[in-house]
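Entry:
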Amino acid sequence: MLTNMVSQTKPACDFAFERGQILRRGDTIFRIVEERGAFLVLEHSTTLERKVQDMSAVYLEYSKGLIVPSTMEEEQQAFHGVVSTDPTDKVLDGIPIDMLSEAQRRHLRSVLKYISELRRLGYECLRPTPLLRLDYERVRHQMRDAKPPLADLALSTIYEWSLVLDKSGGDARAVVPMFQERGGRGKWRVPQVADAAIRKVFVQLRADTNAKIRACDVEDRVMHIVCMEVGQAQTPLVMPGRSTISRRIKTEFSAYELTRRNKGKALADKEFRTSFPRDRAEWPLEVLEFDDKDSRIFLIDEGTGLPYGRGFVTPGMDQYSRVPMGFSISELPRSAWSAICALTNAILPKDPSAPEYVLVRSPIEFAGKPGIALFDNATYNHVEEIDNAAREIDLTPAWAKPRTPTEKTVVENFNGIMDARFFSTLPGYAGHKSDRAGLVRGTASANMSKEQFEQLLLKWAYDDYCNAPGEEGYTPRQRWHEHTRMVKPRFPLDIYRLKIVPTLRHTVSLRPEGILFTGLIYQNDRLQKLRRTIGAKARVEFRYDPRDMSIVYVFDALARQLFVVPSANLEYTRGLTLYQHRLIRKMARLRRKTNPSIPELQETREELRILVEQSRGSTKKRERMMARRAGNVPGQPPTTDSSPPSSPVEMTDLEAQVADIDDVEMEVGDEGWEVPETI
């Protein structure tokens, strides 16, 4: 079960598998004491026993979450057999402390430390008294050198939080301050009269697109409206502070809009420009480039017998070594989500025993976190999910300059080589789209299993491309090893956070039966308990992987954790992707079934499988217009693509039949049936 993986703050720093790094596997703590080529010498922290371990095996255990970075304090405790007896530390062990901001962590630790110390002195009630003030000053003096340092809190503040802690039955999560909610929309920290006045001023500012937006001016206008409502005598009692108004302004207006209004459009465009001069990478893992390529192959999922979709390959290329760090295969052209999947695949160490690498004979040692991830500058990439992924991984996203192919020449060149040397070997290859004679030369069928396509792609990439000499006579593998001998790849401290990055967010209202999403029910005991706690119709945020509809990850805002909720119909959702589920629903719609039951969906799924089985060997080809949806994510406004209008696409009979099904329009309005059509 995945827990403690969602953070609203910037994650901690990274680490490398190098000499001196402390690691932990379960209760065993060990240190890397020496590097011997492709092997690491590990020393047990308690017995000081040493053993030699294959570096690739250590990488693999890290990617599975079995090995995690540790600290020197844990190593010393393991060596001396010391177990922390601090009751505050025991309480903090049950809280996902890394999920909180620095200010929240400091406040939580300080309040719990002070309360525990004062109650250890015998105080049951912490109401401020002269004697308690003396003891509190003595406690603060004793803890002035605490590591990490504690916050400077008044005794009255400690008393208020002690009441909150007692009311919650000693649950330390109640002491976590929600700093981010102060002045937020829908919160009642601001009186209703002042909140209505602030909203009225915001409406006026939006109507006047050239008006300056300054906190002092907004405060004066709000004060005038409040004074008209409650009178001059009551105005100071209900007026919010300027800091609250500033936070509300930043919530309502973007940073670009504020700069444009207050400093002018020229300065705003210069400050928030998305293209800027960029030096070429001089070391591996400085810059990774991402772009997609149409394989012109229609893929079939052998596990389910259902269509997987037209194969669009998104590689992540290291700019310096020209090594393909990772791949993503999606049915979506120009998809921000597929770029995120390729990014996480590039960072994770590769498992040679995985089914997709079964044909690869060369080592796959390319992994690590880049400094900059360079994406295409098309509008579909400028979405919140790209920024969220970059923030969770703690790297810098960048976008290529418009109409400047030299910005990402490495991935563009790789896509050209992949098209000429790999795609040309696949069934149904018809040559360049402008070569009409190539359509005749192509073989009859361009349908292939997704598993076989992925295995052949990775074999070509790591066995052929990475070992082929380039312009300077060096292979991409040699260029990679030339510098990684001196600079070790770095990896995120929290492997679980990285694995949850390639999921998409969605918000729904809880129902008695659980979560209803795209016509599927997700339910378990913990979700029922959460519903009883937060309310019957409360809205919850969850994350889902479009490649696997059998589970979703629900965010518990109280515990600040993600937990897994399985589908209530695992027989239907097992191995099912969102694209396949959407096709099944549209087939049901063709039969006039506007709200099909699970047995009817199961029956339609079997009919789609039979259609694929019967048509995958068809020798017919069709020319039809294929929709080129920009792969945005839920919650984003529709974007416009500057690419030329779609031209007729030559495709197999099977792909054309599936495309006809995919073109069926679905009615919207019922929250449970709304499908993110851009996924």
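The first helix runs from residue 55 to 63.
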